[in-house]
Amino acid sequence: MDTLSYIALGGNLPSAVGRPEVSLGAALCRLGELGFSFVAISRFWRTPAFPSGSGPDYVNAVCKVRSDLQKDAILATLHKVENEFGRQRDGRWASRGLDLDLLAVGDQVCPDLETWTHWRDLPLERQMRDAPEELILPHPRLHERGFVLIPFSDIAPLWRHPVSGLTVMEMLATLPEAEKAAIEPL
C-alpha cells in the first residue's frame, strides 16, 4: 500500500558529509535511493536551536514522501540514514549533524489516542529527559514548533492534524510572532 508520510530534517553540526545544509541535501538523496518517492520538499530554513541557547542554529526542512513501507519500517530507515551520517544519540535535544523525524503517516494516530495525548501533554521538564519507547504519531509536539511548521507550510499548508483538526497554517498562526520571525529561509 502506497502511503503519504511527512519527514522533518534538521541539523546544526557538520555530519560525515559536511555542513548541515549539505547533510540535508545528501540525506534527501539517500532517502530517494532507499525507495522513498518525493512528492514535495520544502525550502531549507535557518532556525534558532531549541531550547534557546542550546547550540548553533539549525537548518530545517520537511518533505512529503510516498512509500510502501509501514510506519515502523519508515522509522527504521530514517534511523539507518542518521547512523550512516554519523548520528550520535548523546541526549535529548542535543546538537547533531542530522536528525530525521517522522512527523505523520497518513492520518494515523499511534499507538493510540490516550498514549498520544500523554506525550503531547508532557511537561517541558519531562520532555527534556523522557523519550517514548514506541513510535508516537503524529509527532506529539509538531503543533508548537515553528522550526517544523514553517517548512511544513511550504509543502502542505492545508494538511490537517488528525487529532486537533487544525491545518498547518492554523497551527502556525498560534505561535508567537517573535518565534516565527527568527526563522529565515536559506
UniProtKB/TrEMBL annotation:
Listed EC numbers: 2.7.6.3
One Pfam family linked to the record: HPPK
Keywords in alphabetical order: ATP-binding, Folate biosynthesis, Kinase, Nucleotide-binding, Transferase
Keyword DNA repair: no
Record domain 7,8-dihydro-6-hydroxymethylpterin-pyrophosphokinase: where: 92-103
Source organism per UniProt: Thioclava marina
Sequence similarity: Belongs to the HPPK family.
Pathway assigned in UniProt: Cofactor biosynthesis; tetrahydrofolate biosynthesis; 2-amino-4-hydroxy-6-hydroxymethyl-7,8-dihydropteridine diphosphate from 7,8-dihydroneopterin triphosphate: step 4/4
Name recorded for this polypeptide: 2-amino-4-hydroxy-6-hydroxymethyldihydropteridine pyrophosphokinase
Function comment: Catalyzes the transfer of pyrophosphate from adenosine triphosphate (ATP) to 6-hydroxymethyl-7,8-dihydropterin, an enzymatic step in folate biosynthesis pathway.
